[in-house]
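Changelog-adjacent note: as of this version, every example in the card shows the full chain rather than a window. The one below runs 110 residues end to end.
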Amino acid sequence: MIVEVVGGADERPEVRVVDVDDLTRLHLALGAVTDEEADGVLRDAGLGRVQDAQTGVLDVAALRAAAEPQAGSEDWAERWDAMLAKTRESGWLSDDGSSVQVHVESAAGA
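Full-length structure tokens:
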């Protein structure tokens, strides 16, 4: 699953959740936006924030609410839970399970 923040100089950045059925990976992809623009649009959408140039923090409930309606498989909820368990094991899930740290990658071609 990818949370993309895309946009350009002449348009307001937008956030979208894509590849929702691929629960083997989760990251934040930034297009032609600054970290500040990405942070603002993520916060406005209630999806999270940019922590620094390499790390984002996503709200677990908001991410699920954005992704699940797009899911194409009946076992999506079980695979979602497995993904969260893996992030917890890796130390990326907050203690209360409300947020997950993700790696920031470039999506300049998006």
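Structural remarks: The chain has one domain: 2-106.
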